[in-house]
Design brief:
CATH superfamily of the largest domain: TPP-binding domain
Largest sheet: 6 strands, parallel
Radius of gyration: 19 Å
Number of domains: 2
CATH topology of the largest domain: Rossmann fold
Strand order of the largest sheet: 3-2-1-7-8-9
CATH architecture of the largest domain: 3-Layer(aba) Sandwich
Structural class: alpha/beta
CATH class of the largest domain: Alpha Beta
Oligomer: single chain
Helix content: 40-55%
Length: about 250
């Protein structure tokens, strides 16, 4: 524990010294929450949804089965609440210690936690948009008729299909990714939390910043070049980090 506290103190010092810190969060910040939600579910929730099963091609060709198979997963995502990582980052942004938060998670929890400058590079399941008139609908309305026979959400204005506001595996990345990349180029510190960063496009972002901090349960490809590495539960680390910053503040 002593070593962990020393590492957290070093990260706190780097944050205070930085003029422009950006954070990247990956699936590791919510993996435990997902597993707990699945194990406590009484709805035979699928343990995982394969990206290969949910593509823009399938949505266009068979939207009915797309929604009926995906609805339990969409509902589970919607029921999740922000955890210690989300709330701590929102607080750090509020204090000016974090300028932007980039995430490849589609749960929308970082915005729900109150953070303002969030770049969702794979979109969000918190809303859906009409394929024709582009009307955006909240997930509350999207799931309103779930479990009542056939489930195929349609636009309340024109009656066309609604598609989740996510980037499917066979689609190009959204404008948020390119904006996030420019944000990283301006940063003098990038903190990677719960992200292995061993795939594209995540590795493109990390490569744009010279000074990195890694907070992840397991080792990553960027550990050797990082200024600080903490291989521990991101939720526990963020609680300790906020406590360290508060102690220094007082």
């Amino acid at each position: 524990m002593e070593q962990l506290h020393e590492k957290v103190k070093k990260v706190a010092d780097l944050l205070r010294e930085s003029n422009h810190t950006v954070v990247f969060t990956g699936s590791g910040i919510t993996a435990e929450d997902y597993n707990q939600n699945i194990s406590s579910s009484t709805n035979n929730l699928p343990v995982m949804v394969s990206p290969e099963d949910f593509t823009i091609h399938r949505f266009k060709n068979d939207p009915q089965s797309f929604y009926e198979e995906g609805e339990p997963f969409f509902s589970m995502i919607y029921q999740l609440e922000p955890n210690e990582v989300h709330t701590s980052l929102a607080e750090l942004e509020k204090r000016g210690l974090v300028k932007a938060i980039i995430t490849d998670n589609i749960d929308g929890l970082q915005k729900k936690a109150g953070a303002k400058r969030v770049f969702e590079i794979r979109g969000t399941l918190r809303s859906a948009s009409c394929v024709e008139c582009k009307r955006q609908v909240s997930v509350d309305d999207l799931l309103a008729n779930a479990g009542e026979g056939e489930f195929l959400p349609v636009c309340p204005d024109c009656g066309e299909k609604l598609r989740p506001d996510v980037v499917f595996s066979d689609e190009p990345l959204p404008p948020d990714f390119h904006t996030a990349k420019e944000e990283v180029k301006m940063a003098d510190l990038m903190v990677l939390i719960g992200a292995s960063m061993d795939g594209s496009p995540e590795n493109q972002l990390a490569g744009e910043c010279k000074n990195l901090v890694v907070i992840n349960k397991s080792p990553t490809v960027y550990d050797r070049q990082a200024k600080a590495v903490i291989n521990a539960d991101p939720k526990e680390v963020m609680k300790l980090l906020l406590k360290e910053l508060n102690n220094h503040k007082s």
